[in-house]
Amino acid sequence: MGCVNGKCCSRYPSSPDGGSDHCGELRPYKSKHILTKRSLEIVHVSSHNFTLQYSILTQLGYYQDTVESENQDSFCIKTQIQCNPNVHVFGVFDGHGQYDAQFSNFFNDRLVEILSSGSTLLDDPLKAYTSAFLAINSELHDSEIDDTMSGTTAITVLVVGDTLYLTNDGDSRVVIAVKNGDQILAEDLSMDQTSFRKDEYERVKLCGARVLSIDQVEGFKDPNIQNWGEEENEGSDPPRLWIPNGMYPGTAFTKSLGDSTAEKIGVIADPEISVVKLTPNNLFFVVASDGVFEFLPSRTVVNMVAAYTDPKDACAAIAGESYTLWLENEDRTNDIIIIIIQIKALWIPVVGWWCHR
Length: 357
Fold this sequence. Notes:
Layout (H helix, E strand, L loop, with lengths): L20 E2 L18 E5 L4 E10 L13 E6 L8 E10 L3 H18 L7 H18 L8 E10 L2 E7 L3 E8 L2 E6 L9 H9 L3 E3 L1 H4 L22 E3 L6 E3 L5 E2 L1 H4 L8 E6 L4 E7 L1 H4 L4 H9 L4 H19 L6 E9 L2 E4 L2 E4 L1
Antiparallel strand pairs: 1-4, 2-3, 3-16, 4-5, 5-6, 6-7, 6-13, 7-14, 8-9, 8-15, 10-11, 11-12, 15-16, 17-18
């Protein structure tokens, strides 16, 4: 949902190595789209004696006017950060604007470099993460790439032993599966940063942004009604950010990297960070771009993953379902990146004994 003008405002034209390196009721889901032959990959977290099994899938979007466009999204998987077998990072970066892919790849490359060389990463992961995001944002502003109307959203998960550190700028998402008796529940570990959120809406309004859907901008709906319902029910006409007297930039997200024009009306790079301690009831987590979550709720994505033993098959099913839903609702599809990470054989010490999932 979240890009600048062309990619998501469909009515507006555009104005991997060291370790491993790759920069309810369940029902079976049948995928018509086999989109990758990537093998299942495994990394061991020795400090807590469990493994992460993961698979990645990327799907190029379909746009009628730019059939041969490149994928605007990129991903990062870097295991054994700083040669530490207990530290791994998984990230998804969703570029937008004219120089979309350049921005997502720039952030991808620099994040790995900064985390791999940072002396404070393990002492204070939250501070190190925030500093990395802000430093990269400054580098983007100073780079030769024009960030006037281009940038990238970014969401990453740093695994340190049995703890997940999440950083988020934008509207990609991390969701984790939690076993509760006979049920498998979906728990969002990140919050989409959009104007659907009251706190983000109020923040960008204070920065001077006009918040309007495209129908409101074009006069089909009353611009004075500042209520757009629930995000998952609103489809393809979300509230967007516009400068006070212009028809740009039209971002649906309220945080990103780059985007120097949108930055003037409150689209900032300061990431939201959360910390999650893994338990034996956590089965897997999913890191994916908004191309997945535009029409698939988190609970549906978790149900689909749980229906498959092999995360490669789950990736293909989710991408196929997302692609189908895009074409049922739009005349295009978004680019898609999805990473599924299964948590295997997690042991947790309990009063001197070990609890095994």
